[in-house]
Design brief:
Length: about 775
């Protein structure tokens, strides 16, 4: 029996090739998109869960609390991990990761800058389950040892086992003692090599030296909440006493974060790049939208096709077929089409996967079997529910009526029309969302940051004091070149040196807050066209500018409660003591030293030209070799590393750019599938009104009039969908825009444009079928009358 149903189903698919192609194509494309989004969401939600004891691993973070601020750092001091292990028996093991700021590797005569190298404790393999290809878990027990990832090992040694080989990094020889499998992309802390730990020199202020990521492995039975209480006691008995002994009025606290939650926990300085749960929710909703629209599309197309098959159902009932048999037959057709779509969707997924990976910079990896099984189960359930409505409708047809030519279901148009409204409501919501994201991204990238970012080359200077002191010579050399507009020794304007504790007095009350600061020289403001609102610039001839002067921004002036015309000459008191107090000599306009996700905060600019972290050069892109040559002459043992400021500025919004592109593609896909459903309903309507159209043509109706008659009902449905979609989209986009300190207003034209696009696309879709019906010879539709 089942075999017979499949044979009949296959024959019907072949007989109705257009409808079959539309159904299978729509389902295949939708399933491929849903698989793609599901893989992306699964990738984001499974960060760091590949470690054997992931649920027992926690990261220790540091919070600096003052009377007016509370700042969190992802880093901690070097002695926190060892102290915790000595103090609490439930801390089984600890490991520290300390970034190597600059890693210059020698390969033959070539020098290569490598990133993401970390010094770690030898216990790293006792805490984390990184798979070793070569070497053992004791690979980092010896001094000057290094464990490479597979990628880095193949770069320098090829595919052979490199253990025992030497590698020169920063003029120091390391012995390769192991090779790790390349890290999965869903891990919070990425690295290319691990070096043996080197303790920093002892210091009384080591408690403030937050220089490493600290991870602890707790015993399986340990409750995180109970350990947090012990950590609070640890800070009171060991940390705060050391802070007070140094004379600081700062409350320093430590907290722990579960490893498996790090990817979505933001708001910390010096942290690794984070994911965004909001974007995951958006894409999850998009996947549901696509699946819903595909199901509605299938039902409408199937119903439109079923009109021609009601006589078949009637005949089968007359011949003795029962309702369960008819339902089974028509459900068999649904399952056959769904099976074909399920097979085709992975092929489509493989074809669009490279484009998706390029857009998101996330390589999609093969999920576990359980993920695939759940996915197939959901697909089967959706297919069952989707095919049930048309199958029940066909099997419920009355034989006498359908054999007389009366079509069953003509009075249930409201169901199909409601489904079309639902389709286009979802489509318009996503269209409005896509347009909003595009406008917000454009706004972020085009808003004036308060400085001129074009044609500014930012040269990265290694964290080597000897090299940094040579930069004054580089500046003098470049300044004499006619192809160079200006040179400054200072910090990249969209990065910061750190924070300093500042005391603010207001109505006799003192509050302390950590304030951002940056090191610059006298050419910095002019090179970036940052405007002075009051006072003067730094002057190398004024001795006090080097250690007792500061330039502040307008936000700092407002925060201190000063008037702009009274700010110059004021004293900035630091929590470190009177010896480090500064005098304000100038006020600059507020400029965006961070992304537009955050409001401009108070800023201090210090005159520190002797050891600059960056060299800023204004010149054309074609003149970069001038800087490269000057660098090579002055610092031959370190590779030249630079990028243009406008490129770095745009990179701050790569996530929004990525979302914009993906939403555009998924919106187009959703509208396409929705139009297939509208096409099916238009086909159904023209079939039902075939005789009416023939009579109207005989009575003199024009083609234009008939097209308008057939189209107006569908345009009403799209209009209703637009009215429903607008408030939903407005609410959703308002919620999304809340994450930005600077954002666009939701203008009326965004909604009008989305509505216009929906109406235009719907009109084109319906017009095709309407024109075809209007041009039909009336004799064909009336010859049976």
């Amino acid at each position: 029996m089942f075999q017979n149903y499949l044979i009949i189903a296959w024959r019907n698919l072949r007989r109705n090739r257009l409808y079959s192609a539309l159904n299978i194509g729509g389902l295949s494309i939708s399933l491929a998109a849903c698989w793609l989004i599901s893989l992306y969401v699964w990738h984001e939600l499974t960060f760091d869960q590949f470690h054997d004891r992931a649920d027992s691993i926690f990261r220790v973070i540091t919070r600096f609390k003052m009377s007016g601020s509370d700042d969190g750092l992802a880093l901690s001091s070097e002695d926190v991990g060892p102290r915790l292990r000595q103090t609490y028996p439930e801390v089984i093991q600890t490991v520290r990761f300390k970034s190597v700021p600059v890693a210059t590797v020698r390969k033959g005569n070539a020098l290569i800058n490598e990133s993401d190298l970390y010094q770690v404790d030898s216990s790293v393999f006792d805490v984390f389950s990184y798979p070793l290809l070569f070497g053992t878990r004791t690979a980092l027990n010896r001094p000057n040892s290094i464990v490479l990832t597979k990628r880095l090992a193949e770069t320098y040694f090829g595919v052979a086992d490199p253990t025992g080989q030497s590698l020169q990094i920063n003029n120091q020889l390391y012995t390769v003692t192991g090779v790790l499998q390349n890290l999965p992309t869903n891990t919070d802390l990425t690295f290319s090599a691990l070096l043996t730990w080197q303790d920093a020199p002892p210091s009384d202020e080591a408690v403030f030296d937050t220089s490493c990521f600290t991870y602890i492995l707790l015993a399986d039975q340990t409750k995180a909440d109970k350990f947090r209480q012990k950590l609070y006691q640890f800070d009171r008995t060991q940390v705060l006493l050391r802070v007070k002994a140094l004379g600081y009025d700062i409350k320093l606290e430590h907290q722990v974060q579960p490893l498996t939650e790090l990817h979505f926990v933001g708001g910390l300085y010096d942290d690794t790049p984070k994911g965004n749960r909001l974007y995951l929710s958006i894409f999850s909703v998009v996947a549901v939208f696509i699946l819903l629209v595909a199901c509605i599309n299938y039902m409408n197309l199937y119903v439109a096709q079923a009109i021609k098959r009601q006589q078949e159902a009637g005949i089968r009932k007359v011949m003795g077929a029962g309702k369960p048999q008819l339902v089974s037959q028509f459900m068999g057709e649904t399952l056959l089409m769904l099976s074909i779509s399920t097979v085709l969707s992975p092929l489509l997924l493989l074809s669009i996967r490279p484009v998706f990976e390029q857009l998101t910079a996330i390589p999609l990896i093969m999920p576990p079997v359980s993920f695939i099984a759940i996915g197939l189960g959901v697909v089967g359930l959706v297919g069952l529910l989707t095919g049930l409505y048309p199958a029940l409708m066909l099997s419920s047809a009355q034989p006498v009526r359908v054999l007389k030519g009366q079509m069953y279901g003509a009075g249930r148009q409201w169901v199909r029309r409601s489904l079309v409204v639902c389709q286009f409501t979802l489509s318009v919501v996503l269209l409005i969302g896509t347009l909003t994201v595009r406008q917000q991204t454009k706004y972020l990238q085009s808003k004036d940051p308060g400085f001129v970012k074009d044609q500014v080359l930012v040269v990265n200077v290694p964290a080597d004091e000897t090299i940094r002191r040579k930069m004054t010579v580089l500046k003098a050399s470049l300044s004499q070149n006619s192809r160079v507009g200006a040179v400054s020794l200072g910090l990249n304007p969209i990065t910061l040196d750190g924070k300093a504790g500042i005391i603010r007095e207001n109505n006799g009350q003192k509050t302390e807050q950590m304030v951002f600061f940056a090191r610059i020289d006298e050419a910095y403001l002019n090179l970036l066209r940052i405007k002075l609102r009051a006072g003067r610039n730094f002057n190398p001839a004024v001795t006090s500018d080097k250690n007792r002067a500061v330039i502040v921004n307008e936000s700092f002036v407002k925060w201190m409660g000063w008037r702009l015309d009274q700010a110059v000459g004021q004293t900035v008191k630091t929590s470190a003591g009177d010896s480090l107090d500064q005098q304000v000599i100038g006020v600059v306009n507020d400029y965006h030293f961070a992304s537009l996700h955050n409001r401009i905060e108070p800023l201090l600019l210090y005159y520190r030209p002797d050891t600059p972290p960056n060299v800023l050069v204004r010149l054309k892109p074609s003149d970069v070799p001038v800087v490269r040559s000057a660098w090579a002459r002055l610092v031959p043992n370190h590779p030249f590393e630079a990028n243009f400021l406008d490129s770095s500025f745009q990179q701050q919004y790569h996530q929004e750019d990525k979302i914009k592109t993906l939403l555009s593609w998924f919106s187009a896909l959703l509208v396409l599938v929705a139009c297939l459903g509208l096409f099916g309903l238009a086909t159904y309507a023209t079939e039902q009104r075939r005789k009416e159209i023939g009579i109207r043509k005989v009575l003199g109706a024009s083609v234009t009039g008939i097209v308008a008659l057939l189209s107006q009902d569908f345009l009403k449905l799209v209009g209703i969908a637009i009215l429903i979609a607008m408030p939903l989209a407005w609410y959703a986009m308002q919620q999304w825009l809340q994450q930005f300190a600077y954002k666009i207003d939701l203008s009326w034209w965004l909604f009008a444009l989305a509505g216009g696009l929906a109406i235009g696309i719907a009109l084109l879709t319906v017009s095709f079928q309407s024109i075809k019906a209007a041009l039909m010879n009336p004799v064909k539709s009336l010859r049976t009358e």
